[in-house]
Amino acid sequence: MLRRVQKPSIDHLKLRLEVLLRFFSRRRGFWLRCLLCWAIGCLALSNDEINAYDQRFQLRGDQKTSSQIVLITIRQSDFATIYDTRTNFLDNMSEVTDITDSFFWNKRIWTELLFKILRQNPRSVGVTLYFGDNVGTVRLNAEEQRLFLDSRVVWASTTNSLERILTPIFTSRNHDNLGSNELRRDEDGVVRRVFPQRAEMPHLVEKITGKAFPTSQAGLPINYRGSNRVFTQYSLSEIMYDEVPANAFSDRIVIIGAETSSGPVYMTPMGTLSRTEILAHITDTVLGNKWIKRLPFWWYATGFFALMLIAVFLITTYPQSVALFFIVWIGTLLAALSAWVFDTFYFWSPAMSPFVLLGTSWIIFIGYQASKIERKNFRLQQEQQYLQELEQLKNNFVSLISHDLKTPIAKIQAIVDRLLMQQQAEELGQDLRSLRLYSDELNRYIQSILKVLRVESRDFKINTEVGDINEVIEEALTLLRPLAREKNIQIHTSLEPMFSLEFDTTLIKEVVINLVENAIKYTSRDGQIEVISYETDDLVHVIVKDTGEGIKPEDMEKVWGKFTRGSDQDLKTKGTGLGLYLVKYFIELHGGKVKMESTVGQGTTVSFTLPLDTENEVLA
């Protein structure tokens, strides 16, 4: 029973997998480009490692640090002022080439210094100088032992070249007042990370803060809060001469260091700093839990894939300018968001590698879009050429048929005319007149088709000449009045005298004939037609009004199309549907406009305008 249930499921899964593979196979070029963009972005991400923090620290500048940290820096000049027994020796300080930690040892000074600090009840005191075998034998009385072995004081230990731990002379019995002051440089000589120390010898910062470092074999990035002088600092002279506030060290972490030449300064992302200042930055990071956090690589890679899809969607969907705007906007937004998250929550997100990904996507897919457009243009050119050939073939065919039909129609009309003159029978005469009428209609259809073919040809041009438009209207009406008399339709004219203007008299005459002929065709017997012309400042107006059936509102726009008539006229009247198409075409060739107004049951008014400055309008 289980096999019957599982088999269709497996077959369905295989089918869906095949469909998916076919989809990717058809668009493999697109997806290969996507994978290439993503791979370049991931490569940039892999290079955007811990040294990328340097730029973040430098861009954000000095930040607010913990007020619980106070530094005491013993300068050589301060030590010389207080250390009177070595004054003569220090007069030649310029000749000293190696000032080590042992140089700053003096039991009397350190006893007084620790007394002045501890009486303010600090949280802890960290001494970064190593005082061990390098200062020889030191004898302490009970009061001095109480100061030097105070539980709040942590003394620095170090290691020798054999990685052996060297303990200071003030080590307590259980070694709980010691801490390593080790700082490791990266390959380029810059101190960027702090490393957890051995279990038997914790780091000096861990001892003075009471907090252990998070476990990390690769080291923990130090969250530098600025360059030098970002922490509260006092000199030895200020303390010995009581020039510091009474509560300067109360409930604070005091870090004591000195200016030595054995390791005077360290290179950091924020410039050169002393060992004491670097330990202060580490202490500030531990106190505020400001360790820089980052996600596993595959999280960022997944986000990059989504970012790549968004960029590709924008490039392939929107115009280049719009897509470029959004891509730059997204990149800038990500950079600003990355800086804000890093400064506020100490969470690292890449800023430069997204720009690399977006830029790569832009370059690759702009080329992809260009190749697509080129292929489409090539296909369009082929289709256009094919359509042009097809259109030319159609025009040649229609023109050939139309010309071939004109000759037999002319012969038919000649025979009919001869029979009408010879035939006396009334019944046969009626049939011959009907045949003559139908042949005239067929001839007009052919003439209309030939006109459309002629005006739509590429080499068609209007032949302008100076003329009187009223004369053209009268000539057209002369041809059409016999047709109007057959239906007892009265044609009235109201033609204002006008100056001559330049226009194609043949085409405008055809326009008037088509408008008036339409008015006669769609006006019932005993109707009225009025033709009006007048002139305004820069236009000539011609209006043809009739009292016919009118045109439905839904047909008002359609009647201007080629081979298009009113929806209810196919069974009532005969026509090709080319008259108004030619009217609109001819008027627009002259730079004019046509207009139609109609009310069903009352009649239709068709008007057109011609510009007086016809030449400029046509050229425009």
Any key phrases for this structure?
alpha/beta, Heat Shock Protein 90, 5-stranded mixed sheet, 18 helices, rod-shaped
SSE order and pairing:
Elements: H1 2-26, H2 28-47, H3 53-60, E1 69-74, H4 76-82, H5 87-90, H6 107-118, E2 124-127, H7 142-148, E3 153-159, E4 165-166, E5 178-180, E6 193-194, H8 204-209, E7 220-221, E8 232-235, H9 236-240, E9 253-258, E10 266-268, E11 271-273, H10 275-287, H11 297-317, H12 320-345, H13 352-422, H14 426-455, E12 465-467, H15 469-486, E13 490-495, E14 501-503, H16 505-521, E15 528-535, E16 539-546, H17 579-589, E17 593-599, E18 603-611, H18 614-619
Parallel strand pairs: 1-8, 1-9, 2-3, 2-9, 3-5, 13-15
Antiparallel strand pairs: 3-4, 6-7, 10-11, 12-14, 15-16, 16-18, 17-18
Helix pairs in contact: 2-11, 2-13, 11-12, 11-13, 12-13, 13-14, 15-16, 16-17
